[in-house]
Amino acid sequence: MLRYRFIPHTADVRFLAYGDSIGQMLENSLLAMFDTQADIRSVERDVKKGKISSKTIEVRESASSERDLLWYLLQRVLSELDAIGAYGYGVEDIKVKKSEKGFGVSANIRYVEEEVKYSRIYVKGVSGYTLEVKKIGGRYRASVVVDI
């Protein structure tokens, strides 16, 4: 199954992320954002080999719509990782709850300290202007532009 793919964009980075559930789409959106910032495959390989150590932070977010939940989650994780000088590379235990008030999400984000050898592009933020979440044929698709 295709988790995400990058789409040409004139000035920033655009990706489409997919999932059979809201949680899976959110996870794949986070992975696409991480993959924009760093070579997450190399990070994961080096963590498995014991060359670098990995840590985990828990994030929680809530919103009235699926679209806003995606936006708030991406922005929250980006801010949290930037504040500690880290690259995210994995998502664990993502849980989405729907209630009368909207949606809530919690997830554990795996990260490593920033190292130049893994760097790709610095992501400044997530554009809310073109952000969208659609359900197409039973699958979720997110369209995201990250500001670089």
Explain what you see.
The chain has helices at residues 22-37, 40-48, 66-84; strands at 4-7, 13-19, 55-63, 86-99, 102-113, 125-126, 132-136, 139-147. The chain is of the alpha+beta class and 148 residues long. It has one domain (4-147): Archease, Possible Chaperone, Chain: A, domain 1, CATH 3.55.10. Strands 1, 2, 6, 7 and 8 form a five-stranded antiparallel beta sheet that branches. Helix 1 (22-37) packs parallel to helix 3 (66-84). It is globular. The chain starts with a strand and ends with a strand.
Give a topology summary.
Elements: E1 4-7, E2 13-19, H1 22-37, H2 40-48, E3 55-63, H3 66-84, E4 86-99, E5 102-113, E6 125-126, E7 132-136, E8 139-147
Antiparallel strand pairs: 1-2, 2-8, 3-5, 4-5, 6-8, 7-8
Helix pairs in contact: 1-3
Which oligomeric state applies? single chain
Q: Note the overall shape.
A: globular
Radius of gyration: 15 Å
Count of discrete domains: 1
Please state the second-level CATH architecture. Answer: 3-Layer(bab) Sandwich
Q: What is the chain-wise order of helices and strands?
A: EEHHEHEEEEE
CATH superfamily: Archease domain
| CATH uppermost class | Alpha Beta
